[in-house]
Amino acid sequence: MFNLVIREQEYKVPKEIKLKKWMEVTRHDIKLELNHPRIIHMLMDIPYDDIKDIPKGTKIMLMSFIANLLYPVVSIPNKKIRGKELINFDNLTLGQFIDLEMCIANKLHTSVIDFVTILYGSNTPDKKWTIQEVWGSITFYLKYRENIFNSYKNLFGIDNNIEPEELELTEKVKQDVSKTWYDIILTLADGKFLNIDQVTERPLIEALNWLAWNKEKMEEKINNLKKQKRML
Questions:
Q1: Can you list the pairs that 140-148 forms with residues at least 24 positions away whose Cβ atoms lie under 8 Å?
Q2: pLDDT for residue 88
Q3: Domain-embedded: residue 227
Q4: pLDDT tier at 232, thresholds 50, 70, 90
Q5: 177 and 85, same structural domain?
Q6: Which of 143, 171, 184, 199 lies at a CB distance of 3.0 to 4.6 Å from 188, suitable for a disulfide?
Q7: Mean pLDDT, the chain, as a whole number?
C-alpha cells in the first residue's frame, strides 16, 4: 500500500477494512465516478476540498487500490478466524441456507455481518473482523450456492445456469423471497406450524431432494390427469 501526500499532509491507504466500515462504504456504488470522493473520504479521512486537488491519474490509481480492498481477489476460504471455524457446507441445514438467502436478498452491504455470523457460528463477529479475512469464504459459499441452484434447476424454475457473479436470486424467486421460502418450509412441514423447527433443522440436501421428488410426482400426476381428459 502507499501513502498520499496532499498539501504536506500524509494520508494512509488502509491495508484492510473492518466489516462495519465495509458495509458503510459499499452502500455507495464504486462503479459511479460521482461516488469516488465520498468513498475516498470515508476510507482515508481526506477532506473533500483536498480530494478535489488529487490529479486524475492519481485518483484512478487510488480507486483501483480501494476497489481491491473492498472486493479482494481471494479464492481460498479462511477456515478459521480468531477461534471461529467455517461451517462445513455439506452439513448446512435448510434453515441456515434460507437465512443466507435472506442476507443475499437484502444485499450484502447491509447484511454481511449476519452472513459471516452464519458462516462462522452463532456468535456475531467482533469489531476486529475484516473483509479481507472473510471475503474468500463468502465467494466460496456463493460458488457452492451457484452449484446448488444449478443442481436443482427444475425445482427453482431455472432455465439456464446461474453465472458465478450473480449474487441475487433469479427474478422468479426474488419477487418475494420471504414468502417463497416460507411456502417451501410449510410444504416440508405438511402445513403444520409446530413442525417448522424440525424442518429447518434438517440437512439442506435432504430437504431439496424431497422437494424435487415431490415436485416431479406432482407434475407427473398433473400430466396424467391431462392425458385422461384428452381421452374422454
A1: 140/75, 140/76, 140/77, 141/77, 141/89, 141/100, 142/167, 144/89, 145/100, 145/104, 148/97, 148/204, 148/208
A2: 95
A3: no
A4: low
A5: yes
A6: 199
A7: 87
